[in-house]
Amino acid sequence: MIRKLCIIGVGLIGGSAARRARRFCEEIVGIDADPENLRRAETLGVIDQGCASLERGVAAADFVLIATPVGAIEPLFRALAPLWRPDCIYTDVGSTKGNVVEAALRVFGIVPPNFIPGHPIAGAERSGVEAADARLFEGKRVILTPLPESAPDALARVEAFWMHLGARVERMDVGHHDEVLAATSHLPHVLAFTLARMLGRKDEQAEIFRYAAGGFRDFTRIASSDPKMWLDICRANRGPLLELLGEYETALREVAGLVRSDDADGLYACFSEARAAREKFLKSTENNHA
Ligand SMILES: NC(=O)c1ccc[n+]([C@@H]2O[C@H](COP(=O)([O-])OP(=O)(O)OC[C@H]3O[C@@H](n4cnc5c(N)ncnc54)[C@H](O)[C@@H]3O)[C@@H](O)[C@H]2O)c1
Ligand SMILES: O=C(O)C(=O)C[C@]1(C(=O)O)C=C[C@@H](O)C=C1
Q: SUPFAM superfamilies recorded for this chain (predicted)?
């Protein structure tokens, strides 16, 4: 049971956590940089109360969930530093973890033992509190990246928090997290944004979107995601992302070579390998949900 949960950033992720956390929190207070979003969160009953002041919002909270874009976390740590209490648990949901840990080190000198970095591997292309969904984390993975200095009781409480939201919690090393998520999430978003932008420019002249159907829709769904959120993620994880963009360039050139030389066997082998890789992914997600 949490007495007072304070959520900083009551958007898709913070709002979804709030909606489900109702069941085991006596009070949920929200803080948001956007007063209009905070008012909507109150009106929708996602939070009990919106708080314009960080100081009042975190006062007497026993659990603080930071759910802002990752670029906002360092300034937030600075604002929270004088208010930081040893009897409260702090965690975040940022899509990148290395920059969050580095920000904590710069602000506090150490990663506070009662701050456990986290990342729910669940989301959507929509943002804002209206998109919040109590079932968003059901059956989904949450990765926690604790450090040697993390307090075991804080880690246990953050694990229990996510399990109560229906998620399956795993632990991972910070660097490994950022490499893996660069491949499975950050690279696909950059590719979808790039394709949607490129074809959007063509559409100006040729109205090609009139003829776009499922293929384009499926490939580019995530290009509807919030540009500000993805700007922050790309900047925070630029090393692993650049490495993968380089690999993708090479792979794309290889396919272009196969098309150019009309290499039917090569193309067939390439598409078959890709299909098998995706089938394997689909099977593994089926097993995960079993
Ligand atoms: N959207 C996803 O699919 C997804 C999935 C997993 C993790 N995440 C991570 O979760 C975090 C939130 O993403 P989201 O999709 O909920 O975004 P969102 O835009 O829906 O919500 C973020 C909220 O934070 C508020 N905010 C911004 N700066 C703030 C500040 N300094 N102080 C207080 N509030 C502030 C915004 O006004 C907004 O309401 C991001 O770090 C993102 O990387 C997103
Ligand atoms: O499903 C989506 O729309 C998402 O973008 C979710 C998604 C992902 O890439 O899988 C996006 C960012 C996260 O940090 C975690 C999950």
A: 6-phosphogluconate dehydrogenase C-terminal domain-like, NAD(P)-binding Rossmann-fold domains
